[in-house]
Amino acid sequence: EIPQHSLPVIPDSTTSLALSGSYVSNKMINKLIQVHDKIFCCIAGSLADAQAVTKMAKFQLSFHSIQMEAPPLVKAAASVLKELCYNNREELQAGFITAGWDRKRGPQVYTVSMGGMLISQPFTIGGSGSTFIYGYADAKFKPDMSREECLQFTTNALTLAIGRDNVSGGVVHMVVITEDGVEHVVVPGDKLPKFHDE
Amino acid sequence: MSSIGTGYDLSASTFSPDGRVFQVEYAMKAVENSSTAIGIRCKDGVVFGVEKLVLSKLYEQGSNKRIFNIDRHVGMAVAGLLADARSLSEVAREEASNFRSNYGHDIPLKHLADRVAMYVHAYTLYSAVRPFGCSFILGSHDEDDGPQLYMVDPSGISYGYWGCAIGKAKQAAKTEIEKLQMKDMTCRELVKEVAKIIYIVHDEVKDKAFELELSWVGEVTKGRHELVPKDIKEEAEKYAKDSLEEEDDSDEDNM
Description:
The complex is a heterodimer of chains A (about 200) and B (about 260).
Chain A: E1 10-14, E2 18-20, E3 23-26, E4 32-36, E5 39-45, H1 47-68, H2 74-87, E6 94-102, E7 106-112, E8 118-121, H3 134-140, H4 147-164, E9 171-178, E10 181-188
Antiparallel strand pairs in A: 1-9, 2-3, 4-5, 5-6, 6-7, 7-8, 9-10
Helix pairs in contact in A: 1-2
Chain B: H1 22-32, E1 37-42, E2 45-53, E3 67-70, E4 74-80, H2 82-103, H3 109-122, E5 134-142, E6 146-152, E7 158-160, E8 163-166, H4 170-179, H5 187-201, E9 210-218, E10 226-227, H6 230-254
Antiparallel strand pairs in B: 1-2, 1-8, 2-9, 3-4, 4-5, 5-6, 6-7, 9-10
Helix pairs in contact in B: 2-3, 4-5, 5-6
């Protein structure tokens, strides 16, 4: 899920469980894929499909940015992913949240759904645990949050989702993307804030 | 500077001993035989002007346009073989459309110019095809990158310009363009000057009637490439005709 605000800071975060059927095969997987210097994707759905798609997108964007002699727009990155998802919708089961920073429009968040819909949003949530935090996210989000407020909002939202969803958990990976660069923040499960669900 | 390339000019896949590809040079001659087209970039946009020679009174007014729309934000003015130019405008449209389909936003003009130039260049490599016999000027306006102008010639080279001219009177037009301070002008001011330049370079003796085609893209059109509205065009033409008369009058006084 990704909040976004006027300081060009975009935390990305996701939970890190990988499932084979009902078996948790990995609790520390990083679902944040970098597709360009300042553009990241959260992946959801079939991780194999998502990895294949992001690999292709990363290649296409690298080529595109060399041709354009400029980093790609976040919109362009999201569009590339969308084309891949939509044109191969019969075979694929992967959805993405694309977020990043570009010179033209600053920080942006785009959702590419499994069927290939592309929309721009101020913030968005996704994944199995997201169903439990729609209320929290809608209530607590405000535009133009600071970096700390953003990180807090994200951590809280994820903690609540992990608390209620049996297939979410593990480690929280966050990425803060600004004009100046990219910063990774990792919070292990036992360091997350405590709420009243436990 | 004209020379005959006997023997080395039959196909585009042959160099002459002095390193020239004559077929490409002959293609450029085709452009020089066509009537003039100019494009000028100013502070807040780009204006195109084309001297469209009317070969017959039976032609419907406004037919055989020489200015094309390539996507909403890009305009293309052409000189040379019109059929070749039309085919290239379709190529440009397809490039712009594919870009938008893949990347979700307007194609940057430099990229479009590079892509179409590469296509034109490809036709200068093989004996099975002939080079395109047209040059064209591409222009657009964008909030972030501002106004831009590129010209592509039959050899497949593209250059960025502040002002350029193609066609039979390109030298005379260039001289007039160089007199302008285009970086400080707005589109509205420039439209009149473009009309004036076309009227100046038009040869009344050799070519009889002509229609002026004017188009622009800039802040004044909110980034869309459009033909200049009728009233503004009439005002520009009036300014052009009046300026010419003044010059004629002042010549008479000097005598």
